[in-house]
């Protein structure tokens, strides 16, 4: 099966998944809040009123700090992005719009909501996974893959 995915790193993926699940569990059990990054980012930026600002700010600050820690402990993680900043800006805006329309993001719905068997989160997760697959297929069909 891994022959189909030569870039796959299953051990690293497993470790990352466990850490994401652990962070979600700590947030839910320790603070009583869902670890939804879009909601926490909105709170950290003062765009919403819950959870408490220090919790949101520390969680959001931990995301790039964790990435820097991993980069410092490893050879880094190779990433490829489109050459056009306009594409990245439009993609970010569309993603932000989607998280507002869906009342959450992949972390809130996909990690925390599905694990709680929330029907709303399951529908949202299926929707954004299907939308992502269709988007990738269309971009690749029109020669826009990178």
Give the tags.
single chain, 146 residues, globular
Structural notes for this entry:
The chain is globular and about 45 Å long. Helices cover 69% and strands 0% of the residues. Helix 2 crosses helix 3 and helix 5 crosses helix 6. It is mainly alpha-helical. The longest helix is centred in the last third of the chain and has 23 residues.
Précis, in short:
This protein is mainly α and 146 residues long. The chain is 69% helix and 0% strand. The longest helix is centred in the C-terminal third of the chain and has 23 residues, at 119-141.
Helix content: 55-70%
Q: Estimate the global geometry from the Cα principal axes.
A: globular
Major sheet size, sense and barrel closure = none
For the termini, the CA-CA separation is 23 Å
Instruction: Give the percentage of residues in beta strands.
Output: under 5%
Order of helices and strands: HHHHHH
Question: How large is the count of helical segments?
Answer: 6
Strand-helix topology:
Blueprint: H1 10-31, H2 37-44, H3 53-73, H4 85-101, H5 106-115, H6 119-141
